Fold this sequence. Notes:
Elements: E1 5-10, H1 13-21, E2 30-33, E3 42-45, H2 47-50, H3 60-66, E4 71-73, H4 77-92, E5 97-102, E6 105-109, H5 111-114, H6 117-135, E7 139-144, H7 147-156, E8 162-165, H8 168-175, H9 188-196, H10 202-207, H11 209-227, E9 245-256, H12 259-279, E10 284-293, E11 298-308, H13 311-323, E12 330-338, H14 349-354, H15 356-375, H16 383-386, H17 389-401
Parallel strand pairs: 2-4, 7-8
Antiparallel strand pairs: 1-6, 1-7, 2-3, 5-6, 9-12, 10-11, 10-12
Helix pairs in contact: 4-6, 12-13, 12-17
The structure holds 2'-deoxycytidine-5'-triphosphate and calcium ion (2 copies).
Amino acid sequence: MEQIILHVDMDAFYASVEIRDNPSLKGKPLIIGSLPKERGVVATCSYEARTFGVRSGMNIKEAYRLCPKGIYMHPDYNKYKAVSQKLHEIWYSYASEAEAIALDEAYLDITEQAKDEEGARRIAQLIKQRTQNEVGLTCSVGLAYSKTAAKIASEEKKPNGYFEILNKEDFIKLIIDRDVRILYTVGAKTAEKLYQNGISTVRDIYNNEEKVKKLLGKQGGWIVDMAKGEDHRKVTSYKPEDAKSIGHEVTFQKDVDDFAYVKDVLVLLALCVKQRADRYHLKGNGVTLKMTYADMKGITRSRKTEVIDSAAEIYQNAVELLNNVEKRPIRLVGVSMYQLTKEEREMTLFDLLEDREDSNEKYMQERLLELQKKYGLDFAGNLNKIYQMETLHKTVEYMRKHK
Ligand code: DCP
Ligand code: CA
Ligand code: CA
């Protein structure tokens, strides 16, 4: 094999972590996400809950209808992040190149380390064992000659699975009669387009190459290649500056039409974005405001900026964008910074004269003081906690109720 690739993916990740830490949950339908009385969705659920039809992304009310006896819990992101770090240590120790694509999932290039198929199998088993022994969780591993094949292989025997696809012929044999959605990049929208044109399985793609290419343009070409088992993408380590944007968003438990309040929420979102950007030493060249209206219509508005590196600038740009949108009830608001770079910004005369950093800091301090007074919040020593998703949501809800 030209490349030997593993795809590792944890089983029912958030749910498995909670079960590991509270064994009395074992064997029960556990649903992680919003609680049934709240607004929101299922993040994930245990395999027991899946037998009731509960799925990731499903509305929590729908999940409750399907599985009223389930145990419902909020996610604990910090815990999952810490677990993920430990997983990455194990995984990366076997790979020359490793590409994490989620907290619970990565591609590993083990061509050099494995040398041959036997060696690759050994590494796959070692990773499974160490994940079990050192982290107390099960994962599924796919071994293959390409990224697409490795990802499909890891799905094949879930949970606690292992599967290999060592060449194109085996790959094609495996997927030829499956739904087109098995192919990477074929999501709900693309699939719908294909179905409407009589293309529902990989075999149909095979037999209608030109049609697919015409229908989907560049993506079509890529899908046809994939269906034939052609995928020469390399495993490349994730570099945070390659991310398209860094963003944070909140969904309100009740629709909101008070835009003064929304503006206040932007203060917290801007601080969160800035905090994440700092972790990777990133600055941005633009700000995006995202909103979903009560009728589910979503909009995004962006502004290109000079290099920005402060919460104050993120906030002020987001406010400008907010001032120019249609004002009717919304259910979600988000802020992100895009065109990320590691560049230093050039000092302007203004920066020097005004001591820009200090004045930006002070500006945000003042905004926070206003919030404290207006909503009766107490940030004292707690500001760091705001950056945790859970606390952010709680604070935003608290503010909504104490307007
Ligand atoms: N996740 C989420 N919202 C989604 C999908 C996933 O919050 N719509 C989170 C919860 C999952 C984690 O990401 O635990 C990993 O997602 P996966 O799609 O890999 O699903 P699981 O690991 O939960 O289950 P599986 O065993 O099918 O991989
Ligand atoms: Ca997973
Ligand atoms: Ca995953």
